[in-house]
Design a protein that fits this description.
globular, mainly alpha, 389 residues
């Protein structure tokens, strides 16, 4: 009697299909990042500038003129910041060679503290001896003639100076073209916001009203988060620049602006923004007072920003768990590098809002949302059942 094959359970089938779709999506994000990264950056810039455009439009200014005015101010601010940074970098390049003796003197003073103690040296020697004996014993068990002499390869630089200059110009040109593409895409998104939203709704299909509500809430949350983050970062960078200028650290406005920009990168940005002022204070001051004052300034600003300003400014603007932000930052950084760190939180906010309004994506709201458990259960119970068309 032939055996009748058992049907695959719907749950297993759904799990396999979801896993395959997720894998294909991750592969598409990785291999399509050359196009997707400028598109995501343009969308992020459009979300950030949309409140200003709406405010000008509410003052009876045509949307085209409002978008032009906001983009002109944005480009002017970027060019001004680049000019200030260029001037500060030039001044630092002229000033740093004069502090070379001071740096050598401080390193000589630190050498006794950095020299390992007698116990550490003996432990290092013991580990080296054990490693050599283990390597000798390993070679003794190898058959004769199996070991090949090591051949040292020496890389010879054959490229001329003109080729390197052309390579540098090409790299800078690609970066400038990417910036121009992001600005152009942001202008198009701001000008055709309603049309793009309608096209996206028709493309996604399903419950149009719930999709429109999800898109509107995503835009509001991301815009509110970006505005709050910009205010918080300026509230950190401007006092830092003023404090460094008062202390006497060279390039104070450069480091304050750099700290403002780097704080858009979660977790790594604040640490990177604090390194260079400390290095400059170490190099400039013959003593240690400037280093201590700079360290105290950074520690004070971090304490105030992390414990007072950010909770008041952000509040529940994102609605995302801190653990979800950390996991999202690691995921997007693995896919898209440093740009992924900048985009991690806004993308996670959009996913959480989509999961809140769409039943097939409900698991995203359950996993990442910071809403209380009871409120989440009420939303789950009250949500209408999803019936595919």
């Amino acid at each position: 009697m032939p055996t009748i094959p058992q049907p695959v359970m719907p749950g297993v089938q759904r799990f396999v299909l979801c896993g395959a779709a997720l894998a294909l999506g991750i592969l598409g994000l990785h291999f399509g990042k050359a196009l997707l990264i400028p598109l995501a950056l343009a969308a992020l810039l459009a979300f950030a500038l949309d409140p200003a455009v709406n405010w000008l439009e509410s003052r009876r200014l045509p949307r085209g003129l409002a978008v032009g005015a906001v983009m002109a101010l944005t480009i002017a601010a970027l060019l001004g910041a680049a000019a200030v940074a260029t001037v500060q970098v030039g001044e630092l390049g002229q000033e740093l060679p004069t502090h070379r003796q001071n740096i050598q003197k401080k390193l000589r003073e630190l050498r006794p503290a950095l020299t390992p103690s007698g116990t550490t040296r003996e432990m290092t020697r013991l580990m080296d001896m054990v490693s050599r004996e283990f390597e000798t014993a390993t070679h003794a068990f190898e058959p004769a003639g199996s070991t090949k002499p090591k051949v040292q390869q020496v890389a010879v630089e054959t490229r001329s100076g003109s080729a390197r200059a052309i390579d540098l110009v090409m790299r800078v040109g690609v970066q400038l073209a990417t910036v121009a593409l992001v600005l152009i895409l942001a202008v198009i998104m701001l000008l055709q916001r309603a049309e793009l939203r309608d096209r996206l709704l028709r493309l996604l299909g399903g419950d149009t009203e719930r999709m429109a509500e999800a898109l509107a809430e995503s835009g509001r949350r991301v815009s509110r988060y970006l505005t709050a983050q910009l205010m918080v970062n300026l509230g950190y960078g401007v006092p830092m620049a003023l404090g460094l200028w008062f202390i006497g650290v060279p390039g104070a406005w450069l480091w304050g602006g750099l700290a403002t920009v780097l704080r858009f990168v979660p977790y790594l940005g604040p640490a990177l923004g604090a390194v260079m002022p400390l290095v400059l204070a170490f190099a400039v001051d013959p003593g240690w007072s400037m280093v201590l004052w700079t360290l105290g300034l950074i520690a004070t600003l971090e304490l105030i920003s992390n414990n007072v300003v950010e909770p008041l400014a952000y509040g529940n603007s994102t609605g995302v768990l801190p653990l979800a932000v950390l996991v999202s930052a690691a995921f997007w950084a693995l896919l898209w590098g440093p740009v992924g760190l900048v985009l991690a939180t806004p993308l996670t906010v959009c996913l959480v809002v989509m999961g809140r309004h769409l039943a097939p994506l409900r698991f995203l709201d359950v996993l990442f949302s910071s809403a209380p458990r009871r409120a989440m259960m009420r939303r789950t119970v009250s949500a209408p059942s999803y019936t595919p068309r």
